[in-house]
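#data-curation
PF: Archiving a pair of folding outputs for the training set. Convention for this channel: one message per protein, sequence first, structure tokens after, nothing in between. First:
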Amino acid sequence: MVNQKTKLELTWIGKENRPRLEPRILLEDREKSYHASHRVTDHDLFDNRLIFGDNLLALKALEQEFTGKIKCIYIDPPYNTGAAFEHYDDSIEHSLWLSLMRDRVELLRRLLTPDGLMFCSIDETELFYAGTLFDEIFGRQNRIEIFVWKKSYGGGAKSRYVVNQSEFILCYAKDLTLVPPLFLPPDEKASK
């Protein structure tokens, strides 16, 4: 009997197809750049960046300088709701959405410090697939929480069956064993 190590994983059409990304460099466009006229203290940082362009290529360009240096990442990807917006199509085939997300989340994970955290906003359209994808990339043992938040506007998104007033934020650690507690009960706060 052959003992093969198997794992639970999410699969989809085209999962094996990965983009071939060469190392990239960022070039500053002086017309779009803004820098403060002077430093107020010696500790002022002038390293903020606003990057225009394809986010996968931008992440690849940041990889060499920032791998293992980012403490917290928050992303708000297209929810794949079927809507079309001016700057992007939010209605792509499900398998393509998963591939696009996978490629970006893997790069983002590499940017995190060993005790870094990643947050991802999502709605119910892709919640379960996004969670399974993050479980696969980060490891299920590194899932901290799935936060639910109530939208503050109107009656919520209407589907055929319900009015949905909630969205979600997935929270993962690069290595949960290195993350200090994010919440201390009131009795522990008093003793600190």
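PF: Second:
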Amino acid sequence: MKIIITGGAGFIGSNAASRYLQLGHQVVVIDNLSRDGVRKNLEWLRPQGSLEFVQLDIREGASLAQLFEKHRGADRVLHLAAQVAVTTSVVSPREDFEINALGTFNVLEAMRRADMQVPVIYSSTNKVYGEMTEIGTVEKNGRYAYATLPEGVSEHRNLDFHSPYGCSKGAADQYVIDYHRIYGLKTICFRQSCIYGYRQFGAEDQGWVAWFMIASQLRRPITIYGDGKQVRDILFIDDLLNAYDCAFEAGDRAVGRAYNIGGGPGNVLSLLELIAYIEKRQNGKLPFDFSDWRPGDQKVFVSDIRRAQTELGWTPQVDCECGLGLLYDWVARNLDLFTEPALVKA
């Protein structure tokens, strides 16, 4: 097969590209190489198989349309390119809008104009549901939890964008779904929770699981925004890639649908619990500071993944303890990847 991956040199994209290259498929990676670490990911990918790399920003609609026309015979599309941090969106809302909303529109239009009748998965976010302040939270065992919603947040939950990032990703999310309804594109929307794993160059404002792992091993400062009791359902990268494959293979069952994709209620972790895990691995106390809550930060987000389980036949296989161990050990083996000044900023 030929598979197009926007943002294919990023954390998720490079893992997906590697999987498909190892299976003998042809992969077209589109990336503007603006994120820290992505050039290292691209170097890692090059020897793995039939890779075509195109340095292109998805905001460049005309160039993107030409590229998709060239590859109109592709079999699958993964649209992963994005501006990924809430904090960045607050500082630079126009840039955030242009990358996430306009960039996704450009991808959809490129596929429509090329008459590509192949499945495309869009990586949306749990932030489309907003802060959900009306859903009561309680503190249990030193971390926050929903007072109700024992299975987590389902796709029936009303969308409520909070922060420029939520707005831009949410707008794109709805365009993706509507391009199936109006134009018949075979779109699938994944509202992803906290993804973590290999080749994640986490930073303070995004990718907190990887950032804590990297910063702790490099003895960099760690700041917890809020009180550290906030929780997410975390999902290991291999499980996310399995979900992509399940959706692609589901055919018309998945087309036009949105899926909440995360670790679910069985894989919930708080910031303080991650600190405790690292302290156990390092057999010592880990210094860190507290700071104010950040805009749009949910106290709790846990995905109800039953739709994906029922319709896609997918369920996470890597539990928290195993996944954290895999990531911690990978970081320990690859500390040289994180020693450039741009990759160890606090």
